[in-house]
TrEMBL record:
Location of region: Disordered: 298-318
Annotated keywords: Membrane, Transmembrane, Transmembrane helix
Lineage: Eukaryota, Viridiplantae, Streptophyta, Embryophyta, Tracheophyta
Spans traversing the lipid bilayer: 7-26
Pfam families the UniProt entry points to: Peptidase_S9
SUPFAM superfamilies: alpha/beta-Hydrolases
Protein name (Swiss-Prot/TrEMBL): Peptidase S9 prolyl oligopeptidase catalytic domain-containing protein
Organism: Hibiscus sabdariffa
Length: 318
């Protein structure tokens, strides 16, 4: 006769197996959330609503997926830095337009906003491999433009966007000038244990305890902690200490990993910043930090001043 204890154990085991099966089957829906509850996939507003100068840019990723983006300029012939803005995992680029509006004015820059595959007006379904390809397509497009200074391309990413941006920057040391990470996680493996505490014994990064026997099941691990140590360009880390999603110590771990090999790293903490609102609640200090970083690492090119004979500094054959 089966004992009561065995029945309980079988029941718990069954629930764990069922839970893991659901996790494996629907993990993309946990990592990527293109549609916020109660909203639609489409953009609620466009940059025109905020009276921003912009163009719709349509791209093709390397696997043929059609992508949509907005290229927003401070003014038509702006030659300031061009910031590639990579968003978090939920919602679409329209939900970040208010921040971008402020970013344009505070940093005197252009902003390129990419809709990941499956987000906004872009086709396809999100995945780590696919989104990395999407980011590369966006960067390749910018590098071919003649209306910007391609030596001043800056990558900015928050949360998932930081993981995307770190991978892109690492893969393009000759095209990306600097990287800015805000409230970014060390890996999805580590975040699994944060969001679902029972999983931390089975899924996790190098610094976590437990056998981690289920890591192989995670299709989008986003191991930023491994990528950031290979970034050669200057990196600015912006950490909101009240982040309710990504534990701030994960940003500290990313900085430590990067700074061990890269002396051009800067780490700045914002005491009242949460996951999404650090730019808003920290206001002047936030934008001042970013502006000083850009002025140091992507300075404006000095224009050649005409000499007394009416010529510039060009050399002429003798």
């Amino acid at each position: 006769m089966v004992s009561y204890v065995n029945i309980v154990l079988y029941g718990i085991g069954g629930m764990l197996v069922a839970g893991l099966a659901l996790l494996v089957a629907f993990q993309e829906k946990l990592v990527y959330i293109p549609v916020l509850p109660g909203l639609t996939k489409s953009y609620p507003i466009t940059p025109a609503r905020l009276r921003l100068i912009y163009e719709d840019v349509w791209l093709r990723s390397s696997d043929g997926v059609r992508l949509h983006s907005w290229f927003i300029k401070l003014f038509p012939d702006c030659r300031g830095p061009t910031i590639m803005f990579f968003q978090e995992n939920a919602g679409n680029i329209a939900h970040r337009l208010e921040m971008v509006r402020v970013m344009l004015q505070r940093l005197q820059c252009n902003v390129f906003m990419l809709s990941y595959r499956g987000y906004g007006a872009s086709d396809g379904y999100p995945s780590q491999h696919g989104i990395i390809n999407d980011a590369q397509a966006a960067l390749d497009h910018l590098c071919q433009r003649t209306d910007i200074d391609t030596d001043r391309i800056v990558v900015f990413g928050r949360s998932l966007g930081g993981a995307v941006g770190a991978a892109l920057t690492k893969n393009n040391s000759d095209k990306v000038a600097t990287l800015i990470l805000e409230n970014t996680f060390t890996s999805i493996l580590d975040m699994a244990g944060v969001l679902f505490p029972l999983l931390k014994w089975f899924i996790g990064g190098p610094g976590t305890k437990g056998p981690k026997i289920l890591n192989f099941l995670v299709r989008s691990p986003w191991r930023t902690i491994d990528v950031i140590g290979q970034v050669k360009q200057p990196v600015l880390f912006l950490s909101g200490l009240q982040d309710e999603m990504v534990p701030p110590f994960q940003m500290q771990m990313l900085y430590a990993k990067a700074a061990a090999r890269n002396r051009q790293c800067q780490f700045v903490e914002f005491p009242t910043g949460m996951h999404m609102d650090t730019w808003l609640v920290e206001g002047d200090q936030y934008w001042k930090t970013m502006k000083q970083f850009l002025e140091q690492h992507v300075p404006k090119k000095k224009e050649n001043k005409p000499s007394q004979n009416g010529h510039g500094n060009s050399s002429f054959p003798k």
